[in-house]
Amino acid sequence: MTEPSTSFWQEQRVIVTGGAGFLGSFVVAGLKTRDCANIFAPRSRDYDLLDRTAIARLFEDTRPTMVLHLAAVVGGIGANREHPGKFFYENAIMGIELVEQARQFHLSKLLVAGTICAYPKFTPVPFQEEKLWDGYPEETNAPYGVAKKAILVQCQAYRQEYGLNAVFLLPVNLYGPRDNFDPRSSHVIPALIKKCVDARKRGEKFIECWGTGSPTREFLYVEDAAEGILRAAEHYNKAEPVNLGSGQEISIRDLVTLIAKLTGFAGEIRWDSSKPDGQPRRCLDVKKAQHEFGFQASTPFEEGLHKTIQWYEENCL
Known about the structure:
By secondary structure, the chain is α/β, with parallel strands linked by helices. The chain has a domain at 9-179 and 219-248 and 282-298: Rossmann fold. The protein has 11 helices and 12 strands. The chain has helices spanning 7-10, 22-33, 52-62, 77-82, 84-105, 142-162, 188-202, 222-235, 252-263, 287-293, 301-315; strands at 13-17, 38-40, 66-69, 109-113, 166-171, 173-175, 206-210, 216-217, 219-221, 242-244, 250-251, 268-272. The chain has a 6-stranded parallel sheet, sandwiched between helices. A two-stranded parallel sheet has the order 6-9. Strand 1, helix 2 and strand 2 (38-40) form a beta-alpha-beta unit. Helix 2 (22-33) crosses helix 8 (222-235) and helix 3 crosses helix 5 (84-105). The N and C termini lie far apart (40 Å).
């Protein structure tokens, strides 16, 4: 396995968009352990990434050698259904304007975090990067997925025309401490943790979950994702997108059962099949990440869930 580099980062000036967010905070922590002294995590109140002049000012103020673009407007199925226009516009504009300013600034390297939602609805499992364009994404999160996909096209076009070293990763669903536990916008794992813990504390006899429980998902612990991003930043310099995941698949029904067990909720699990299931299956082929930059997820799923549940109980109750 390729070893993480410290000497590489000591000479870098790094912007981490979304650096105060869920994934970004772990990437910033990883940069610090690699002895990167010049890390800039811009806040939206200071630099609005929807505004090209603000992005240009960010580049001028910080003079980066590398940008890790992790900022995104994200949410679960409910949030995607409620805000498809917002999710498309804000994710597309942030990425498009950032890549353009990186070109104008002659940035040495740009890494963009895309999304698993960019894959076609019925992609054969495990998802291979070459299948990314073989169909339209699952409808409930297509606007978000297509917006991110457009930025991949831009990165490849700018590499071809302008020589911009822009790389693009496709991370699977993330989970871990500091996740978003707001039920209006959270993803499935934090939503289920909150639902089970709250039901246990209130002594409720059942919880209700969306869909049928039959779809499968793959999850990547957030610290593993941060490590993968940093290894790609260090070692990967090609145009082709790369999956970032664990390569392990679990059904939503089994996931709910597991989270109920780990949180101590012993009540009934009821399924509301009138609610959407989302994409039928999600599981990535992760061989390219291992081959290209030595990344392999290392956190066992139950261990990661336990840490996430512990963080929620210690910080959100």
